[in-house]
Amino acid sequence: MTLPRTLALAAATLATVATAAALAPAAHAATTPAETTELAAPAKSWGTYYAPRRAAKAWGTLTATGEDHADLPTADSVRITGKVYDNTRRSSCGWAVLRITYRSGNELPFRERWVRDCSYGSPKHFSLRYRDVYQVELKVCSEPKAKKPSLTCLYAGTWKTLYLSK
Known about the structure:
This protein has two domains: 1-39; 44-164, Immunoglobulin-like (Sandwich). It is built from two helices and seven strands, in the order αββββββαβ. The chain has helices at 3-38, 151-155, and strands at residues 44-50, 56-68, 74-86, 92-102, 110-117, 124-144, 160-164. The protein is elongated. Residues 6-39 have low confidence and may be disordered. Residues 1-29 form the signal peptide. This is Secreted protein.
């Protein structure tokens, strides 16, 4: 191969690479708005939170979309996913207790949801979705197996804030 032909091939290759590099941002920009509207907010990690003496633990992600900053600021939709682990080998369970404060008219009532795992070594997965959410709080407990967490679990100690609409 002669030197002029090698230089011509190199110039053609550089021109092709430059053209592709110039077109790539335009192609990416054309697809970005559609993707952005579907993926409104990235999931934020929360945890790892432990029960006293590390007898249970919970961690996961929270995604809040469509925050409305009216008189009572809330998120249109909140999705909470996670895992709760029982770290004891005896007959107790790990509890993840969630307190979801939502908007109802001009009031902010709350509801409690809980997830229980009584199997040492294998976590319990959960996924919850709520609308018009103002605040999400979590408490992790380790207690004997029951239909619902005890009053001690619900009212002793402090709640960890996972989300607060601002």
